[in-house]
Design goal:
The chain is mostly helical and about 325 residues long. It folds into 2 domains: about 70 residues, no CATH class; about 240 residues, Hypothetical protein af1432. It binds fe (ii) ion (FE2). Fe (ii) ion binds next to loops.
Length: about 325
């Protein structure tokens, strides 16, 4: 038993910081970093719980780590739990449903490993199943506004708009699910952009903006490691491009952009305008549509995509 508590030197890249409920990590070896020794040291072996009282008192190391494989295992188990919860509340409680979706996505984005991202397909299947049985489910969730500027809150909203768009555009069931998943994962590259830049309540300086510009490329790289449909990574790469070549990262124009990228550019812009951001308040939906219309007239955003999106917002489900 004593040997389990020996100093353990573990290569840093194999360990990842844990977040969320620390008491859930009972089944995993947990480490802390000793800055003096520059070593990871076993804090507790698997089978031993983290004392909730100590957590509340702040009497545990500030940062705890588990091996990447243990973290992936933990997230997979939690995703299954969230899916079960979602199934229960989807038809009856839009507020809770949206909260569960955000939690599931938050957790997945905390370890954007291929198998974790692939699992989100199951979450999306549940939402689509509920949506097709009763389109009000999505409409009700869209109407729940929260002062939340996180990537996960934005992506859940975008996913919900994507489903409405896909239905209005007459996509097949397969394409509708795919477009929903595109909405959920289009900003996964932001997991590689420092939080202080994403949450900056001010105009970014050029160096910081450089980092933002890199998120579509990061997303492409992350998604390329998964077995998910190739279209998801392409749209993640293209969603900030504009028809006239004024977007980023490649400044590619209408010829290169997939129709899904043109649609997502409209939806993403609308969501960003109508919701909280660290540097601005939400804009009224009619005003937001006016701004997007201007983008269409000036040749940056796609007219057909805009038309379908407006119809998806205004048509009864
Ligand atoms: Fe983005």
């Amino acid at each position: 038993m004593v040997s389990k508590y020996r100093l353990m030197e573990i290569r840093k890249e194999r360990l990842v910081e844990i977040s969320g409920n620390l008491e859930d990590y009972k089944d995993y070896d947990t480490y802390y970093l000793d800055p003096g020794l520059c070593k990871f040291i076993l804090y507790k072996p698997k089978g031993v719980g983290i004392d909730g009282f100590r957590v509340k008192q702040g009497k545990i190391p500030q940062r705890l780590y588990v091996s990447l494989s243990d973290r992936v295992n933990y997230v997979s188990r939690s995703q299954q739990r969230y899916n079960k919860e979602l199934k229960k509340v989807l038809k009856v409680n839009p507020v809770k449903s949206k909260r569960v979706l955000k939690k599931a996505l938050d957790l997945s984005l905390s370890v954007p490993e291929p198998q974790i991202l692939e699992h989100l397909g199951k979450t999306l299947d549940l939402v689509v199943e509920g949506y097709l049985a009763n389109p009000e489910i999505v409409k009700n969730m869209i109407q729940i506004a929260a002062k939340d500027a996180s990537t996960s809150a934005h992506s859940v909203n975008v996913m919900l708009y994507c489903l409405g768009y896909a239905r209005r555009a007459g996509f097949s069931l397969e394409d509708l699910k795919l477009f929903g998943l595109i909405g959920l994962l289009h900003d996964v590259g932001k997991t590689r952009v420092p939080d202080q830049i994403l949450k900056a309540p001010r105009k970014l300086n050029p160096e910081e903006f450089e980092q933002i510009i890199m998120h579509p490329g990061h997303g492409f790289e992350i998604l390329s490691q998964s077995k998910l449909n190739r279209k998801i990574r392409t749209v993640a790469f293209q969603h900030h491009e504009r028809l006239d070549g004024s977007g980023y990262p490649r400044k590619s124009g209408r010829k290169e952009m997939l129709s899904e990228s043109k649609a997502l550019a409209v939806i993403d812009t609308y969501e960003a305008l109508t919701n909280w951001r660290p540097y601005k308040y939400p804009i009224d939906p009619i005003k937001a549509l006016g701004i997007i219309k201007q983008g269409v007239l000036e040749g940056r955003l796609d007219e057909e995509a805009f038309r379908i999106f407006v119809q998806s917002l205004t048509s009864s489900p």
